[in-house]
Design brief:
The protein has helices spanning 2-17, 35-46, 57-65, 85-97, 150-157, 174-179, 187-190, 219-224, 257-260, 274-282, 302-319, 337-347, 376-396, 421-434, 439-443; strands at 51-52, 78-80, 101-105, 122-126, 133-135, 141-144, 162-164, 197-203, 209-213, 234-244, 290-299, 327-335, 361-370. It is of the alpha+beta class. The strands form 3 sheets. Strands 5, 6, 7, 8, 9 and 10 form a 6-stranded antiparallel beta sheet that branches. A 4-stranded mixed beta sheet has the order 1-2-4-3, with helices on both faces. It comes from Hypocrea virens (strain Gv29-8 / FGSC 10586).
Length: 453
Amino acid sequence: MGRVFLLAAWLLACAVLHHGACAAATGPVSAIAGSQKIACKLLSLTHPDHTFFEGSDNYKYETQTQYWSSTAYNTPACVFVPQNAQQLSFAVTTLTLTSTKFAVRSGGHMPVQGYNSIGSSGVLLSNSNLSTLALSHDHATVSVGPAYRWRDVYSYLQPYNLTAVGGRVGHVGVAGLLLGGGISFHSSQYGFAADNVVAYEAVLSSGLIVVAKADNAYSDLYWALKGGGNSFAIVTRFDLRTVPFYDSLTNSPTVFENFTSLKTVADQYAFGALATYISAVDALQPNGLRQDFRVASFMVNREGLSTVHDTFFGDANSQLADIAGLTASITFQPVTKGFIENGRSRGGSNPQGVDANNAPYFWIVQNLSWQNAGDDDTVRAFAKATIAKIEGTITSHGVAGGYLYMNDAGDGQPVFQSYPSANLRRLKDIRTKYDPFRIYTNLLVGGWKVLDA
């Protein structure tokens, strides 16, 4: 089927362009100025009900409403919303043959400007209608399209007393979290969320639609997608292992006794469904603010923890006091040896290659939100300078963790450089194999690119 759509797009592009687009590519594809107009025309001619232009309600919905951070709002030449993998294949081929830049948006939670959106020089591919959501007959796996956010997955599985190893914030998209590895409430038991993916249905840059599994002809692609980002393929369906909703023997495990024994001012502890909890937490992170986050990691160390905490809040109080609507936080995410080892036993090796021998770690994320675009430069400069100071501190203490978690990283942070060198070389080889003309590097904008590391 993928070849049919590839041929159709090829012939259509040749008919419209009349200037040698049919010639065989001999090197990396680069964007052509003005080509977005041709691409939008082709998409609107073939799929008028799924191609949206500025001024329509659907265009506004796809370019603003669906994003978490207003820093990601943009004005693409048009928005194309495929209904299935075949239509996405057609779009990728059309954009390739017209040498048009494009962005892909799923959940829209990444706040880095231009990482999941694009301006008037390109086309936005929205995953809003790639909406597979189905539990297998034996309830062992659930198939999820990239249209969904984790709140949708948890709500769907709740009646079966099941859940999936997924995001901790409900409006985080399924695709972005999994392609970056994914930290979950269940990670200490099951590893990265990506360690629990059984199969990926994906569109290659050639337009071919494939299913990648650990034990089939695309096992190398399967490995790369478990934390390798967007350099390899556009995933149209994730098949995930399900897990029990709650499998402790007690309502209040003894591990929490040091906390539950404290005198409280207010106590909201309750035994309830993950979907319910996620819904309540989502209200604390509304859409539409301006957002920025940056990541660092270090081996658990009391002195290092205190220094990182004091550095962040000391600098925030002294430098950002006049920023309207500011919220500044730093989160210490514990990563245990069990997290790493249980993930490997469940899903095999992954590109991140985190060293279990130095665990436990704290993967920290500094999160900043504010109201006004006029404060962007000030807040982002603070974020970069402060994370650099934190990295210097943990390095001087000899406890630097090395690995940088992609899904919490900020613009320009060297994510892939923090992976083991052998894994990075393997990722680069796999990228070359599946995308020799660099469609998903040169034309697909945004994200951390393996080739650039």
